[in-house]
Amino acid sequence: MELRPDEKAQSWILDVSASDQPGLLYRIARVLAAHGINLELAKVSTLGERVEDMFLLQGAPLQHAKTQLAIEHELLEVLEAQ
Question: Which domains does the chain carry?
């Protein structure tokens, strides 16, 4: 998983590569919604038992390093849950 600003630093890109799990997209969406992050675009790819998803995000909370770390931590917990 990687969270980084886009080329123009106007939006953020979240790349997720993980084992496919039931409800994975829902759990990712809940984390983003809990922090007031807007999903602008999603590219979801399932390759057998693996997912490689990209999300384009916007939201003021992403401008704060402490909040970014909290979001990343929560997303990692979601990805590790089975």
Answer: 2-80 (3.30.70.260)
Cβ density class 11-48: b for 16+ within 10 Å, e for less: bbebebebeeeeebeebbbebbeebebeeeeeeeeeee
pTM: 0.91
Which residues lie closer than 8 Å to 73 by C-beta, 6 or more apart?
none
pLDDT, tens digit, 9 for 90 and up, residues 27-79: 999 999 999 999 999 999 999 899 999 999 999 999 999 999 999 999 999 99
